[in-house]
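Need residues for this backbone.
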């Protein structure tokens, strides 16, 4: 099947490559010529395990092409995925749907015949119906355009597997239209459906809400355990052991109960804020109280870590040498958007500490967002002479550090394990003072 994917960020690039892998002919379209050139050369513009291999394979086979021209997409395919970003509006909690709107404005007038637009971007509920109205108004005489919503649940760092083997496919359609969106989705996802992956066909607003509700639930789970961590700190209990004990209950489940520095990234923080904002617009104000608290608990963890670092120096971090290991918002990603790690590194630097930062993949992005920090190319350089080491992202290379070897480089063997990811007994045995969060 031929299809276009408009927007080639984390979501779009992975979806385009995934659909080529599923056997389709795919055209990825993006307004950024540098990104398009990189992708067309089989190069992923961000760190995502497994993606470069898929890109190279399908660019070479000719099944995957990239372009900056929406007219090419209109010519090439009848099915078009919208995968552009919906960032947080500056100065507001709302999601900025400008790029999604722009796709419809640019593409629809160019379409001839029967087309389907499937939105994958995370949007405020009601967007799909609005876009359908706009598409009806923009469509040329004789052209029909059906809009469906097909939210994406992929995690950075596991995006390829999440695209090829998702837990479920969700499709929102307007039941009063002709069924073209469902037919196109079934054809496109036929290999996944044949492999037994469930397809849930819902109405448009329900499908849009599944996505934000899923992210709000995950964020709530993380903040729940971090709230319990605050109580553990006050009570002298251990949140890591507690979380493990909770996880045995299948009604609760062990995942997303890892207490630490909290959530960040391009999705969870902005999605819960956009969800709150939209609920408010719709008059469902009381739903906001919970998510506001989820957000507040999450931000408090960052403040807690900054406070713990200051406390380690008697209240004043000015001139103290601190190594921050991690800049990415989570391991196996080079994404620093709303990264808790970069946030604490920045706050400590602003408090006068001499902060050195190392991350295995995210240094380039971190430098762009926070150019004034002192970035070091290796763990060894970052920790040399440090009076305190903070582990802020749980990369495997940090979890597997040799405490004796690191201990030989630092000025003081003190580590704040803000992700509760180190083998604390092993570090203590090597002479380190280890502090975690909630333990
Ligand atoms: C998330 C959703 O998982 C995904 O379905 C959606 O499509 C996009 O948003 P992602 O942003 O890649 O994916 O990150 P995820 O792996 O969910 O982690 C989110 C954040 O929560 C990270 O900062 C992570 O460090 C933090 N986290 C996660 C915890 O602090 N504790 C946990 O137990 C789990």
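Answer:
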């Amino acid at each position: 099947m031929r299809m276009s994917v408009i927007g080639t960020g984390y979501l779009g690039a992975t979806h385009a490559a995934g659909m080529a892998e599923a056997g389709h002919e795919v055209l990825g379209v993006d307004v950024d010529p540098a990104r398009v050139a990189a992708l067309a050369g089989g190069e992923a513009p961000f760190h995502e395990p497994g993606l470069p291999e898929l890109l190279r394979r399908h660019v070479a086979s000719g099944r995957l092409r990239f372009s900056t021209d929406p007219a090419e997409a209109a010519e090439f395919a009848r099915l078009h995925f919208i995968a552009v970003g919906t960032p947080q509006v500056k100065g507001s909690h709302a999601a900025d749907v400008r790029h999604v709107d722009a796709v419809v404005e640019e593409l629809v007038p160019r379409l001839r015949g029967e087309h389907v637009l499937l939105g994958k971007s995370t949007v405020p509920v009601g967007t799909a119906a609005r876009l359908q109205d706009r598409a009806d108004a923009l469509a040329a005489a004789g052209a029909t355009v059906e809009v469906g919503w097909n939210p994406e649940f992929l995690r950075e760092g596991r995006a390829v597997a999440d695209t090829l083997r998702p837990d479920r496919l969700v499709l929102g359609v307007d039941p009063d239209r002709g069924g073209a969106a469902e037919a196109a989705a079934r054809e496109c996802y036929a290999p996944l459906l044949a492999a037994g992956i469930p397809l849930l066909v819902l109405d448009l607003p329900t499908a849009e809400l599944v996505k934000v509700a899923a992210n709000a639930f995950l964020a709530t789970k993380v903040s729940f355990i971090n709230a319990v961590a605050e109580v553990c700190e006050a009570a002298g209990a251990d949140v890591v052991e507690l979380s493990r004990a909770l996880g045995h209950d299948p009604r609760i489940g062990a995942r997303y109960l890892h207490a630490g520095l909290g959530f960040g990234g391009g999705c969870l923080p902005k999605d819960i804020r956009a969800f709150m904002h939209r609920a408010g617009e719709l008059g469902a104000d009381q739903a906001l109280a919970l998510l506001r608290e989820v957000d507040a608990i999450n931000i408090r963890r960052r403040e807690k870590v900054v406070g713990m670092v200051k406390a380690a120096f008697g209240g004043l971090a000015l001139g103290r040498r601190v190594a921050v290991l991690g800049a990415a918002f989570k391991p196996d990603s080079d994404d620093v958007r709303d990264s808790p790690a970069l946030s604490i590194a920045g706050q400590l630097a602003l408090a006068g500490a001499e902060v050195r930062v190392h991350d295995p993949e995210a240094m380039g992005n971190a430098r762009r967002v926070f150019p004034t920090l002192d970035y070091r190319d290796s763990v060894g350089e970052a920790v040399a002479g440090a009076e305190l080491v903070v582990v802020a992202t749980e990369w495997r290379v940090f979890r597997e550090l040799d405490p004796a070897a690191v201990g030989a480089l630092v000025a003081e063997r003190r580590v704040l394990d803000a992700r509760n990811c180190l083998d604390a007994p092993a570090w203590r045995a090597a002479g380190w003072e280890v502090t975690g969060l909630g333990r």
